[in-house]
Amino acid sequence: MLAYLTNLAVLISINAILAVTLNFVLGYAGIFSMAHAVFFGVGAYTAAVVAIKLGGGLLLATGAGMAVAALISLALALPALRVRGEYFVAASLGLQMLAITVFSEWKAFTGGIGGITNIPPARLFGFEFATPAQYLVLTLLCLAAVLAIVRLLVRGSFGRSLKAIRDNETAAATYGKNVAVVKTIAVAVSSSLAAVAGSLYAFYMSFVNVESFVLDTSVLLIAMVVIGGVATLTGPIVGTMLILLLPAALSYLPGLPSTEIGSIQQIVYGAAMVLLMIFRPGGVWSLRRGQGQTR
Amino acid sequence: MQIWKLAIAAACVLGTATAQAQDIRIGANLPMSGPNSEYGELFSNAAKLAIEHINADKLLSKKLELVIEDSQAQPQQGVVAMNKLVNVEKVPFVLSAFTAVSKAVAPVGDKAHVVTVNGGAIGPDLAELGDYFWNVIPLVNLEVQAMAPYLVKERGWKKIALVYVDDPAGEAIRKELDTHVPKNGGTMVAAIQVPRASQQFSGVAAKVREASPDLVYIASFGAQQAQIAKQLRDNGVTQQLASYSAYSAPTAAQLPESKGALYTTQVIDWSGDALSQRVAKDWKAKTGKEPSAYIANYYNAVLIFAKLAQALEKSGQPITGENLLKQRKTMASFDVVGGKLTFLPNGTVSVPLQVNETDGGAGKAVKANIVVAP
Amino acid sequence: MLLLQLLINGLQLGAIYALTAVGFALIFGSTRIFHVAHGAAFTIAAYLFWWSFSKLQWHWLPALLLASAAVIAFGVAMERWIYRPIQRHEGAFFTVFIAAFGMQIVVQNAVGTVFGRGFETVSVALSRAVPIATGLYVAPVALVAIGAALVCFVALAWFLTRTQVGTGLRALSDNPDLVRVFGLDPTRLSQVAFALGSALVVPGAALTAVTQGINPNIGAHIMLISLAATIVGGIGSLTGAACGGLLLGLAESLALWKLDAQWSEGVTFVILFVFIIFRPAGFLGRPLGTK
Q1: SS3 sequence, C156-180?
Q2: What is the spatial distance between Cα B218 and Cα B211, in angstroms, rounded to a whole number?
Q3: How far apart are CA B107 and CA A126, in angstroms?
Q4: Is the separation of the CB atoms in C47 and C111 below 8 Å?
Q5: CB A266 within 8 A of CB C104
Q6: Residue C231 has pLDDT above 70, yes or no
Q7: Parent domain of A96
Q8: Domain for residue A82, yes or no?
Q9: Is residue A256 part of a domain?
Q10: Chain C environment of B207 (Cβ under 8 Å)
Q11: How many Å lie between the alpha carbon of A252 and the closest alpha carbon of chain B?
Q12: 216-235 in C: which are within 8 Å (CB) of A?
């Protein structure tokens, strides 16, 4: 029982990191990325390869993952600078689908569909994180760190520039905001922090393969952000918990075949997205504060 | 928020409070939904039949029960399911299927000292997944080693084109064919890879025609292998078809376009002894169909568990993964469906193989009792 | 010969893609709504066709009519109950997009639960290829696909240019208020756009069920291709969307000549990406200032 809850808590923390970092670009910068799972994957694969082939510990593996993710995020930043709205969504979708093809076919690096197995446990200064309880502590610390970084950026002048660009890009440019630099930095920060979640995931599962980084995952992350509440710090965490606790809650409903739980979870959050957009675009978090439509 | 979390935690505790200390539980990590659910149903029903017999014959001191988790035949899902079986359900023994899934879940079982048994997957790598991973089905290196000389030397089909799925199982088969076909004097004229989720093969058929083979070998599974066969025929490929044990699944073997296709399986003589006859009879009564080698394998996996557990109970030891492994090494041979099964030290088996030909029904053996040195 | 064979396969695939893309482009062009739930309409049409034709053994005509009725109802319902309320409040691109996407997820999973998550195909004599030259096999269904696409496009062109409603649709994308001045109702026109655009998925869906097979994820896949085709062809141009669909179908099929099948899927997205970076207006779209 405890093992089950600890496992759930670790997965929630990892996904919360992803949701918070996605919210950073989506909610605060208005960049509608459908490709967030790509950076999750890049972080995971890089960490796995560094750990297995180079014997690297947690810091080296995560650091490598962050660097590679930041580099690849340029592929997302480039269209972000050129187009907005529907076009950018299409470009990010294209990037996501291309990434799936690369993850599945670059067998030398990713192991293809078979994936990478037998990833050794994470090692930090000689200490090995071997039990789920230890992992929970590690992931919660990382989540706290990511939150702190995002909060710092959002509350400072960088955050103001982001919001200005989101609300009216031309006006922001007129006011002297260097739109290109701000957008590129935002995307790079979001992607490299997402890679941290990837590294944690790879060490925790001891196995990575392309299935964890497909379009459905990117959509799930968007749902977490949207349902929780965009452009708030705690909203994405609320969204993550709601969505991930849902299958556990559903499995206790009588008469529900266990093979359908995944589908029903998706139907519930899909419907939640639709209803929220009609009645409360600010997300669930805005409901609690009684703010109504906060955007 | 707080209240919701507490409620769920309370519900969880209540749920598991219905203690199952009365039963002995083993797990199954099989595709119960998705495109490969046909196999999951087949394998789990075979396991359930074994459990029925074991409970009826009172082989164990308590009732034996099966806990099934859905792998959807995908490695990631399989790992999640395996974690659940190992960490939450705490079973000492798990049935597994599909090469890619088995390779992914084996480390989990290995770390937790839980025995994982495969009765359907065939990738040769499955021989190297550690002491806790056992195979009761001959792996495909044996199948190809048996098939290659038959196709090339005995039947004279020298030029072979391969259509294989982009997956560890498909790749393993390609590797084996690349080794054994030339060894027997044949040539691989084409090796065309298809994505796992693909259903459209007219382009593939065009490439096959271009290569002018004498025979086309299909290395896929599930609904896809039947589609490949059908679309090859629909698009003008008239050459002989061949495949491996996965082709015994009804959707492929009974496809009209498959008529005359050849495929290898292990030899199972259902009328050979009392046990086999009993299983064949009960299976036919339950499902109305003749049993295949897959049924025997998953039945045997559960039967072997029962025999090991029985021995452990007699010597007063608890039924854990470690003890099961030790017991297997002591006993080594088991009387199961199809005769005597002996484990090699690396946890695989070597049994006689046969070549079958599809005939719209259960298929007939055209060359039996091929023994391949492992 | 292989190249010619792949070319014909590409035309068949391109015809299907063109049909679906034009439906999406029609809706987006007239109403400016980023209707990503178009893929969901495709899934509904495909599954209803398969179920009524293969499982219930209906004749193909009532099967097609059933599918058409269902998607038209779906499209109109989306417009009335989801898009319109959102647009009344604020109608930001983001809100509409998320709502449409949410619907896509709901439909995809509902279809999977009801009809099963496996692959299904419709078996007809039309998919059996006949050799028309050495090494060249064409299945009658390819001709049906190309023919259906041509018929639909001619009919659509006539509708948009010769009827009052059609002209109103074209005017809607330019200036909704002016449309009102001329006595036409923009709401009514939006519904027509959704009905017509959604109905256009039916031939593509039926043909896909016959040629490629369907599974619940097919809607998302088709949606991506329609989106790519619309952008490559140029937003605002129906001819562009059709050409874009044809181009992508040809590219996907011809890529098989040199690449493995897995990479040929990636080709579509490389083309999309290149267009977005270098020519977002597409082939025939109105040049846009990047906002």
Answers
A1: HHHHHHHCHHHHHHHHHHHCHHHHH
A2: 15
A3: 23
A4: yes
A5: no
A6: yes
A7: 2-214
A8: yes
A9: no
A10: 2, 256
A11: 8
A12: 220, 224, 227-228, 231, 235
The residue of chain B with its CA nearest to that of A213 is: B76
Number of domains composing chain A: 1
Q: Would you give the DSSP letter of residue C217?
A: T
Please list, residue by residue across C25-63, b when 16 or more beta carbons sit within 10 angstroms of its beta carbon and e when fewer do. bbbbbbbbbbbbbbbbbbbbbbbbbbbbbbeeebeeeeb
Q: What is the DSSP string of A137-186?
A: HHHHHHHHHHHHHHHHHHHSHHHHHHHHHHH-HHHHHHTT--HHHHHHHH
CA distance linking residue C155 with residue C255, whole number of Å = 32
**DSSP-assigned states of every residue in C109-157:** HHHHHHH-SS-B----GGGS-EEEETTEEE-HHHHHHHHHHHHHHHHHH
Beta bridge partners of A127: A124
Give residue for tokens 């569909």. Answer: A113
A244 lies in a domain? Answer: no
Q: By the CB < 8 Å criterion, does C126 face chain B?
A: no
DSSP code at position B343:
B
| Domain range C2-278, CATH class | mainly alpha
Interface test with A, best of B2, B4, B8, B98 (most A CBs within 10 A): B8
Is residue A17 situated within a structural domain?
yes
- Output the pTM of the full model: 0.87
With residues binned 3-state (H G I as helix, E B as strand, rest as coil), the percentages for chain B, rounded to 5, are: 50, 20, 30
Residue C263 sits at the chain A interface (C-beta within 8 Å): yes
Q: Which of C98, C222, C268, C279 to mutate to test the interface with A (most CBs of A within 10 A)?
A: C98
Hey, what amino acid is at C265? E
Tens of pLDDT, residue by residue over B84-129, are: 899 888 999 999 999 989 999 998 899 899 999 999 998 888 998 9
Q: How many CB pairs under 8 A join A and C?
A: 136
Find the mean pLDDT for residues C210-219: 86
